[in-house]
Write a structure and sequence with these properties.
By secondary structure, this protein is mainly α. The protein is 68% helix and 0% strand. Helix 1 runs antiparallel to helix 2 and helix 1 crosses helix 8. The protein is globular and about 60 Å long.
Length: 264
């Protein structure tokens, strides 16, 4: 009898753990890219772009606040969104590798945003129908913001690709740098498979065709070639990160760790 009772409990705990991991991933993606975009404050090519990148970063930080707060609630271990953001070590982060890559020049930043936002838009559109009401609510709010992120990045891809010889060279270099990290966005694992089966999550592999079509149309308009197939770099979801994330976290987490009792 006790065995029969424990089996549903074990399944419920496993589902809760998977949901925690999934929401944490989404929150980490938004948090880290938001932090990266903040590095452009006062450094963008023109004032309008400076403000636009700052607004994109704020949108992503806003997503992270909601997602990490929900992850802490699911975990039930007393960690709120701030605790998850500022008091985890690098190996505990599960963001995709794309978002932690340095911005480089403006063109690489645009390429990174282009690839990520097109994926995030498709993902959040799917999550609007999630059986998890809280996750669906976050997605419904965020999808409006991400639609603008897609438009902003796509317009700049066209502008740089079909612009001067220099701008074309730089955006091709940015695309080449970022492309190796795109495959990871469409990986499935035990976490996603479990949540897809219950209607909570979206199967990322099922988004690939629509994604390739969407980015292909923009690249065609920009007169840029499709990126050549190459071996993808993966591991971020499992905490295997590039050296860049540690440097980013050192800067982002310094004040909260130096003054752990401070209220922001």
């Amino acid at each position: 009898m006790s065995s029969n009772i424990s089996e549903p409990l074990d399944a419920e705990l496993a589902l809760r753990e998977a949901l925690f991991r999934y929401v944490l991933r989404l929150g980490d993606d938004s948090l880290i890219l938001g932090q990266r975009l903040g590095e452009w404050c006062g450094r963008a090519p023109m004032l309008e772009v400076d403000l636009a990148l700052a607004n994109l970063g704020l949108d992503l930080i806003g997503q992270a606040i909601h997602l990490l707060a929900y992850a802490g609630e699911i975990e039930g271990a007393g960690r709120d969104g701030d605790r998850l953001a500022f008091h985890r070590d690098v190996l505990d982060y599960s963001n995709c590798l794309l978002v932690e890559q340095p911005g480089g020049d403006f063109a690489r930043t645009i390429a990174r945003q282009f690839f990520f936002s097109h994926w995030q838009l498709l993902l959040f559109q799917g999550l609007c129908g999630s059986t998890d009401e809280t996750l669906a609510g976050i997605a419904k709010k965020a999808v409006k913001e991400v639609a603008y992120h897609v438009r902003f990045a796509s317009e700049w891809i066209v502008r740089l690709g079909d612009g001067t010889e220099e701008s074309r060279r730089r955006i091709l270099s940015g695309i080449d740098w970022c492309w190796r990290f795109v495959d990871e966005l469409f990986e499935t694992d035990a976490v996603t498979r479990q949540l897809v089966a219950t209607g909570v999550a979206v199967d990322p592999s099922g988004l690939r065709e629509a994604y390739d079509t969407a980015i292909g149309l923009v690249l065609d308009e920009a007169t840029l070639p499709r990126a050549a197939p190459r071996r993808g770099v993966v591991g971020g979801r499992q905490g295997r990160h590039s050296e860049h994330l540690g440097h980013l976290l050192a800067e982002m987490q310094f004040l909260p760790r130096a003054y752990p009792d401070a209220v922001w």
